[in-house]
Each structure stands twice: as C-alpha cells, then as structure tokens.
Write a structure and sequence with these properties.
Elements: E1 39-45, H1 59-62, H2 67-74, E2 77-79, E3 82-83, H3 89-98, H4 102-105, H5 121-127, E4 131-136, E5 149-153, E6 163-166, E7 174-175, H6 180-194, E8 201-206, H7 244-248, H8 280-286, H9 290-310, H10 314-349, E9 356-362, H11 381-384, E10 388-391, E11 399-401, E12 405-406, H12 410-417, H13 432-436, E13 449-453, E14 464-469, E15 473-479, E16 486-491, H14 509-525
Parallel strand pairs: 1-8, 1-9, 2-11, 3-12, 4-5, 4-8
Antiparallel strand pairs: 2-10, 5-6, 6-7, 9-10, 13-14, 14-15, 15-16
Helix pairs in contact: 2-10, 6-10
The structure holds 2-deoxy-6-O-sulfo-2-(sulfoamino)-alpha-D-glucopyranose and calcium ion.
The site of 2-deoxy-6-O-sulfo-2-(sulfoamino)-alpha-D-glucopyranose has 14 residues, from loops.
C-alpha cells in the first residue's frame, strides 16, 4: 500500500518504463510508422457543480442548458460517482499533478504546501514524448513544471483583463485584454495550432469560471434575468440533524454572502463585510475598460436600484439573493460551455476528434443553495462529488457510469493513455479499464474511498474532517472543534440529501463499525498524520 513517498518519485526524475513495444518513442526510419498515441485534453473549470450541467439532469440546469457539455456526454461517459480527495482548489490541483493525497504531496490547504520536489505527471508525459501545455488557473505556489507551453493566471486569476504569465514572459505576469474564459480558450487553441503535429500532446485547459464572485461575460449579462430557478430541497436546512461543523460554517447565502462583492450591489459599499470584501467588486470592475464598465452598469444598475427600492426582507430577501447568485453563476457556466464547444469544433475541423481523449471536470463540486450554502469543502455529496465526462475515441457514447472514481485517478489514467506505467506511489487507478467496459466498474476496484479536508482556520470556517464512503454509506469524523471530536453517518440510499445523521442510531451499529474499520485502515495504510 501507499506509504511515505519513495525516493523514486520524490526528488530527481522518475523515468517511467514504456509499456510494451507498441508505441516506441522514435521508430527507426525503415520501420512502418507506429500509430501515434492518443492526445489528451483535460478541461477543468473551477467550482462547477454537477447540478449545473444539463447532461446530469438536475432541475437547476433544466433552465440553463449546457449543450456542448451535453454533446460530450452524448459522445462519451458521464460519471455519476466521481469524487475528490479534498474539496478545495489548490489541493485538487496538486492531486491532479501528482496523483497523491494531500498529506503525501504537502498541499493540504490553500496557499503554501506543495512539495515541488515530487514528480508531476506533466514531467513524466513530457519525458514520454508528449507535448505538454497548461492554460489558465494553476493556483499552486510553485512554478509549472513539465510543461513545454503555459499561460497561467496569477493566483485565483481575474475575470476581466487578467494577468497571465507564460513560458515566454520571463516569469512576469502580463495583463491581457478580454474575459478570462475566452482568453483561456484562445490560448488553448493557439497551443493546438502551434504544436508539432507529429507528436502526441496533453493539454490542460483550466478555467477560472465559475469561481466566486461569479462575474459573467458582457455578452451574457442579461441571460436568465427572467428565469426563476428552483430552490433546492434542502435550502432551509436548520442543521438540527447535524453537528457543530454544519452549524458553525460561514458559507450561507443568507448571512455570509456579501451584497457588495458576491451580489454585485456596488451601491452598498459601506456594508460591513468580511475579509476585505467591500473593495472586492470594485477591484474586479476597475480592470474593465470604460465601454465594458458602462455595459455592466447598464445591466446591474437598474436591477440594483429596483432591489434597493423594494426593501425586501426575510424569505423574499433570501430568495432574491439566491436568484442573483445562481443567475450570475450560470452565466459564467454558459461561457465555459461555449469554450468546450469551440475546442470540440477545433478537434472536428482538424481531424483530431478521432485520436484525442477529452475530459471535462471541475476541481471539486459546489453548493447551489443546498443546506443554504455556497462554496464547498464538506464531505457531503454536493462538494465531495465533482462532474466528470470523458469522451474516448472509438468508444460508444451516451453512457452513464456508476464506477466509484476519484481525482487521484487522473494521473494514472493519463500515463496509461501514454502507454506509461504509473509510479507505485500513486494510489489512484487508471480509468481505462472502466472506459473499455463502457463505464462498468471492474471487479477488482476500490470499494471504499478516503476523503480529508484540512483548511481551518479559514474564511468559511469548516471544521477539519476525514471520512470514508462505500458509495451507499458515509462516515465522517470532524475534529478540532470546540465541542470536541465527533462523527456523522449517512445512508445515502434512504437519505440522499444527508439530512439525518445516523451515527448514534443502533440500527446502523454494524455498518458504522464496518466503515470505522475501513477509515482506520486508510489512516494506517496511507500514513495519515492527523485526524
Ligand atoms: C477564495 C474565496 C472563497 C473560496 C476560496 C477557495 N473568497 O478565498 O470563498 O472558498 O477562494 O476557493 S474570495 O473572497 O476570494 O472570493 S478555491 O476554489 O480556490 O478552492
Ligand atoms: Ca475550486
């Protein structure tokens, strides 16, 4: 089992052995040319909930369809049980690059952490003959490594006229003109244009959207303005069926969303708000040119004035906040969907669809008002789960997979696609056997999944927790709170919305004990050092 990181992976360069002789790196001239290995495009948005992809069939997305993501699902596999190991951006990106859990690669929280001596999958692919590119949100405090080509945002990045640094910019961030999603798409397509067509490529396309504070592109400022989106069933959760963590978090639409930053009512900039939010929106708007700024004011100005004059209170005010949040969020999604469409179109028109695997996912899930929340972090389904769609050349489309997969699986999958062996330290599994079985989970596959969230103290005040899931049942252990450590247990078949903690329910005693044993085993086998 995976323990501490071995010297082969940590430090230095790990030269993975090529599997078999099918794809030699350089075929001698007189030999018949071997078929080129598949290209890989990994498209990852930031905080995109599966509830907001219409292929997933959630009531929210019924009124805000995502035709290009749906096309990908119609031509590929939609994974309904895809999860992350730590529901936060920087740890998810570190996991993507290393194939390791947070405590193994050092990136447990936002900010500092990544052990940059650990080999990244990009380095392995590069050594294996792939051209590698990283576009958009990088969000780790180390330089991109293993990339021939990159254009990355500064930290979280900005929606309008963001700064990017590239493989050409000598370490400097340079401001570019345009909307983040469009710029990411343009740089991704530029890479495709400029690459060497005789070598396979692996391209990561990492959008900023739809991350907070959900600033839409100008062309969609009015989209959905006349749509009333349905409230989730658990919108009014009072947390009576849950412990301290759910009661003490600070991520409610009701109390924690700020008018001036999240809800874009610049007129309320004297509102006392958390973490410097008073200036947050103004900073974003200040990046726009005067024409864009005028378009923004033309859209939000009259709506804001109507809101201020209406003096909404109580439930009506809460529902107004929800509608504004969800509309802006879905406007951002629409631009990401356009981007997916442009990339698919490029592949079609350049004969690349037949030899390129296309993956669409998010760095984690997100709350669209479930339990009254926005943000993520918890091991409850909406944030633990992440959308995942994979289109694999030559395979049947329109498949829905219930295979139990995790973001730890991306690195081994991409190495497998490249015909390379994954380093032993990676505990994720290549998804190619699942893809070859049309989404069915192979017999020898994980039965349990481990999760661990560490980011406290932090803005949304979610207690640290780790836990285990077997798809149907989930055991979560919260620690470090003022009321002492405690556990929650959910039966997802009977209670898919996770409203009733059954940890103390005698009828679940044996199941709780079984999951507790598995949790202990993960902690031991993975040398987890806190809980
Ligand atoms: C920022 C946001 C938080 C969010 C984190 C992590 N605040 O700090 O709401 O939880 O990012 O998001 S903001 O005021 O800066 O918008 S993550 O996707 O990067 O993990
Ligand atoms: Ca994120």
């Amino acid at each position: 089992m995976t323990n501490a990181i071995s010297p082969t992976l940590k430090g230095g360069i790990f030269l993975a052995a090529m599997q078999g002789v099918l794809f030699p790196l350089q075929a001698p001239a007189q030999e018949k040319k071997a078929p080129q290995r598949l290209n890989i495009i990994h498209i990852m948005s930031d905080d995109h909930s599966y509830q907001a992809i219409s292929a997933y069939g959630h009531p929210l997305s019924a009124q805000a369809p995502t035709p290009n993501m749906d096309r990908l699902a119609a031509e590929g596999i939609r994974f309904d049980r895809a999860y992350v190991e730590n529901s936060l951006s920087t740890p998810a990106r570190a996991c993507l690059m290393t194939g390791l859990y947070s405590h193994q690669n050092g990136q447990r929280t936002l900010g500092k952490g990544i052990d940059s001596t650990v080999t990244f999958v990009s380095e392995l692919l590069q050594q294996g003959g792939y051209q590698t590119a990283m576009i958009g949100k990088w969000h780790m405090q180390c330089e991109p490594k293993g990339f021939d080509y990159f254009y990355i945002f500064n930290g979280q990045g900005d929606y309008y006229n963001p700064n990017l640094k590239s493989h050409l910019s000598g370490g400097k961030y340079i401001q570019e003109e345009g909307y983040a999603t469009d710029l990411v798409t343009a740089h991704a397509l530029d890479f495709l244009e400029q690459r060497d067509p005789d070598k396979p490529f692996c391209l990561y396309v990492h959008h900023k959207a739809p991350h907070r504070n959900w600033m839409p592109p100008l062309k969609y400022l009015d989209l959905y303005e006349d749509v009333t989106f349905p409230l989730p069933e658990t919108f009014h959760d009072d947390y009576s069926g849950k412990g301290e963590a759910a009661r003490e978090q600070r991520m409610t639409i009701d109390k924690d969303m700020t008018y001036v930053y999240d809800l874009k009512i610049g007129e309320l900039d004297k509102e006392p708000s958390r973490a410097g939010h008073a200036k947050g929106l103004a900073r974003g708007l200040a990046r726009m040119d005067s024409v864009s700024r005028a378009a923004w004011e033309a859209a939000y100005g009259p709506r804001n004035r109507a809101f201020l004059e209406s003096h909404l209170e109580g439930e009506a005010l809460l529902e107004w906040k929800y509608q504004r949040y969800v509309r802006d969020y879905l406007r951002c999604i629409r631009s990401v969907d356009d981007s997916v469409g442009e990339i698919l179109e490029y592949l079609d028109s350049h004969g690349l669809a037949e030899n390129t695997i296309v993956v669409y996912t998010s760095d984690q899930g997100f709350y669209m008002g479930e339990h009254g929340w926005f943000d993520k972090r918890f091991m409850y389904e909406e944030s633990f789960r992440t959308p995942l769609i994979i289109r694999y050349p030559g395979r049947r489309g329109g498949i829905v997979s219930q295979a139990f997969v995790q973001n730890l699986d991306f690195a081994p999958t991409y190495l497998d696609v490249a015909g390379m062996k994954a380093p032993e330290e990676m505990s994720g599994r290549s998804l190619l056997p699942v893809i070859r079985k049309d989404g069915r989970q192979p017999l020898r596959w994980r039965k349990y999944m481990y999760y661990h969230y560490y980011d406290l103290p932090s803005e949304h005040n979610v207690l640290k927790h780790d836990g285990v899931s077997d798809k149907r049942y989930k055991l979560i252990h919260f620690y470090g709170g003022k009321d002492g450590d405690y556990s929650e247990f959910y039966d997802l078949r009977k209670d898919p919305n996770e409203m009733h903690d059954c940890y103390a329910d005698k009828r679940y005693r044996r199941k709780v004990a079984r999951l507790q044993r598995q949790l202990d085993k993960f902690r031991r086998d993975l040398a987890v050092d806190e809980w």
